[in-house]
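Now for today's protein.

===
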Amino acid sequence: MKPKVSVIIPTHNRPETLGECLRCLEKQTIADAIEVIIINDVQDDKEIKRLANSSWQIPVYFETIAPCHQGVARNQGVTKAQSSTVLFIGDDIYLTPKACELHLRAHEHGSTPVAVLGDIDWDPSVGMTKVMKWLMTSGWQFGFNKIKQFRDDFIPESMQHLFSYTSNISVPTEVAARLPFREDVKLYGWEDMEWGMRLQKNGVRLYYEPRAKGLHHHRINLPDSLKRMEVIGASAAVMAGVVEGFDRLPRGWKRLAYSVLAMLPTMAGKHRKAFLRGIRKK
């Protein structure tokens, strides 16, 4: 019998975290109806080989490919999927037991193909830092606070691309194959949003199912977060040059206002300053 959900996980040099991610998938309420596809881009990784040779209670397929960014890995995973629904998560996302079941149920809410967004929160076991709390509540990493009113409903089309987080999102397999991730933009950041823009343009609505929760097993301190913002700034500059309608790069008076706010000694100010440094690098 074919699986009902194919969970696609790009991974890069995090075997211990990936192992726990897989153990969480073994505990899914519909574990007998899922398959897991791991796309690894680290060559000769002994720990990944150990995981691949382990006995899992669910079907787990491992493939190692040349070093790449996550979009390439996700596209490769889609080609291996046997189910009619694919669920994209990160290797550091620990799904709660009903997450896969809830993703599958949520796809019944649309008469046409839909995407389903699950919720994400920090895994408390990593130890919360001040910047982690700020990133979640401010929306600078995940903006779930901004879409609370759309729980168990469709996010408005005009804003859905801003929340197409591939850390916990599912789509019909045919949609993932028809609308693959871009493979020509290699910097981290904004690939989710660009993909979300194309979902919206092709009539694929985004449904928010907050009970399909994943815990993000990743500890971030302030230097880590600011470094990430520099990369995202550089990526925004690249995306603005190749993606029509990309609006995340501040221009004109918005750029001026952004620069002024970046001078403030606040958490937001520090992140704006790092973002602008990234833009200038490009």
The first strand starts at residue 5 and ends at 11. The longest helix spans residues 222-242. The chain has ten helices and nine strands.
